[in-house]
Amino acid sequence: MKLFYKPGACSMAAHILLNETGADYQLEKVDTDAGTTETGASYLETNPRGYVPALKLDDGAVLTENVAILHWIGEQFPDVAPGNDNQPLQRYRQLELLSFLSSELHKAFSPYFSGKTFSESEQAANRKKLDTKLGQFENLLESTSPFLLGTTFSVVDAYAFVILNWTNFIGVSLDGWPQTKAYVARIGARPSTRKTLAEEGLAA
Ligand SMILES: N[C@@H](CCC(=O)N[C@@H](CS)C(=O)NCC(=O)O)C(=O)O
């Protein structure tokens, strides 16, 4: 399979998981502004919406959208998707968390990467929304540890790490959310995360 990615973008969640599981995969870097990939091919032929991630499966089918791609990876590699016959609700918790991460936490960062110029009051509103979502994430960690679905690192942790790590890019400190700060450090220290950061040219 092949992952279409942009360094540091949300596609890094799938990248971490492919390294975590030892999957056999290739990478193709995308320039979303130009709409091309590193091979010079048109990326719009892979994902007409132009954004990453996209995952090309071995039979040539292309999956897009983080929720679908991460759910698919969890189905292929059950070690990163807790939930079995004894704990079927965990699969729905996974979906619940993927939805929260995609439509709430991820989107709260969108203004910071939009390239738009915001007025002071708009900047304050963006920050307030981000703080609210970080607070909601901190609350999630109150009820589960060390990972979002309990004792097993899963697809939701890879996605959460990538989003929360963007605080480093936009200069937002996580000091006000201590459990979240420790969680980011914990996931960031995993060999699969470190390998992924290095492969995307983002190693410290
Ligand atoms: N709904 C999409 C959104 C993906 C998305 O926001 N991708 C960003 C990177 S995190 C992107 O490719 N931005 C560049 C662009 O939109 O041109 C998903 O969840 O997969």
Describe the protein in words.
The protein is α+β, with helices and mostly antiparallel strands. A 5-stranded mixed beta sheet has the order 3-2-1-4-5, covered by helices on one side. The two termini are 28 Å apart. The relative contact order is 0.15. The site of glutathione has 10 residues, from loops.
Secondary structure layout:
Blueprint: E1 2-5, H1 12-21, E2 26-31, E3 36-37, E4 54-56, E5 62-64, H2 66-76, H3 89-109, H4 120-142, H5 155-170, H6 178-188, H7 191-199
Parallel strand pairs: 1-2
Antiparallel strand pairs: 1-4, 2-3, 4-5
Helix pairs in contact: 1-2, 1-5, 1-7, 2-3, 3-4, 3-5, 5-6
Bound molecules: glutathione.
In short:
It contains seven helices and five strands. It is α+β, with helices and mostly antiparallel strands.
